[in-house]
Design brief:
two-stranded antiparallel sheet, 28% strand, integrin binding, membrane, Integrin_alpha_Ig-like_3
Length: 172
């Protein structure tokens, strides 16, 4: 009929984490109660797609002290908002109309202007992320002509990268 807050105490029992809630004592035969619980569980990165809770009523009643164990599976859903930011340095690059690359040269300036593209991948949460794959498609040719010559690829922050085919193929 009324709503009451329960006093619950977490503890370890037989190697398991147990939350013990006192529902009331004594209770009349046939009493029906509904309990809504909100649990905060951490460390779910490797939990899979659900976690299971075992629920059991225990009583000091000598006739039936323990109810059957009920297993409740709760789906685990990790959410993270990823944001990709990028910039090019310089922002614009214009070659003179008569400029031609110097074939066979290993000097960077003989192949065009250096443009550095920097991308930052940010996790805005609320969950942590791992195993993220970012694929960047960089247009290196335009209408059969060289547009961008991919010179090098670098990362920061413990990320792994797979170098694209043709990276610095002229060994500039």
């Amino acid at each position: 009929q009324g709503q009451e807050k329960l006093s619950c105490n977490p503890r370890k029992e037989n190697g398991s984490h147990v939350v013990l809630c006192e529902l009331g004592n004594p209770m009349k035969a046939g009493t029906r109660i509904t309990v809504d619980m909100e649990l905060s569980v951490s460390g779910l990165e490797d939990a899979g797609d659900s976690i299971a809770f075992q629920l059991q009523l225990r009583s000091k009643n000598s006739h039936s002290p323990n109810s059957a164990v009920e297993v409740v599976k709760v789906p685990v859903e990790a959410r993270a908002a990823m944001e990709l930011r990028g910039t090019s340095l310089p922002i614009t690059a214009v070659l003179p109309p008569a400029w031609q690359p110097v074939e066979g040269s290993r000097r960077l300036e003989d192949h065009g202007l250096k443009v550095e593209h920097v991308y930052q991948l940010h996790n805005k949460g609320p969950s942590t992320v791992s195993g993220v794959t970012l694929r960047l498609a960089v247009p290196s040719r335009l209408q059969g002509s060289l547009l961008l010559y991919l010179l090098e690829l670098g990362t920061e922050g413990g990320m792994n990268c797979t170098e694209p085919p043709g990276l610095n193929s002229k060994q500039v």
